[in-house]
Amino acid sequence: MTTEISKMSKGQLAYETERAKKAGKSLDEWLKAKDRAAEEAAKKAEPKKAKKPGFFSKLLDKAHQPI
Questions:
Q1: Digit-coded pLDDT (tens) for 27-61
Q2: Nearest CA to 27 among 2, 10, 59?
Q3: Are 18 and 24 a contacting pair, CB within 8 Å?
Q4: Of 12, 47, 55, 64, which is the most buried if we count CB atoms within 10 A?
Q5: Backbone phi, then psi, for 9, in 5-degree steps?
Q6: Which helix (H) or strand (E) holds 40?
Q7: In terms of DSSP H, where are the helices of the chain?
Q8: Tell me, what's the pLDDT at 2?
Q9: Residue 32, Cβ neighbours under 10 Å: how many?
Q10: Predicted pLDDT of residue 51
């Protein structure tokens, strides 16, 4: 976490410190929780695998094809 903190500007560091205080956590705990929440949001945003077309989908596709 120290590398992440050292990359922050003074303003960012002050802002995140205030947010951590409001949440009742230390700065390191706050940043870890923030990272975990971002990872969970990214997992939810991932597109799901496409399902194979089912029986009725195949029938409808064949029915709509020209003879």
A1: 999 999 999 999 999 888 878 788 888 999 999 99
A2: 2
A3: no
A4: 12
A5: -75, 170
A6: helix 27-45
A7: 2-7, 10-23, 27-45, 55-64
A8: 62
A9: 14
A10: 85
CA gap 40, 52 in Å, rounded: 27
Nearest to 6 by CA among 28, 26, 21: 28
Q: Which position has the token pair 């009742």?
A: 24
Q: Indicate if the pLDDT at residue 8 is higher than 90.
A: no
Contact 17, 29 (CB under 8 A): no
Amino acid identity, position 44: K
| 28 Cβ neighbours under 8 A, 6+ residues apart | 1
Tokens 């029915």 locate to: 63
Q: How many CB atoms lie within 10 A of CB 29?
A: 13
pLDDT at 40: 92
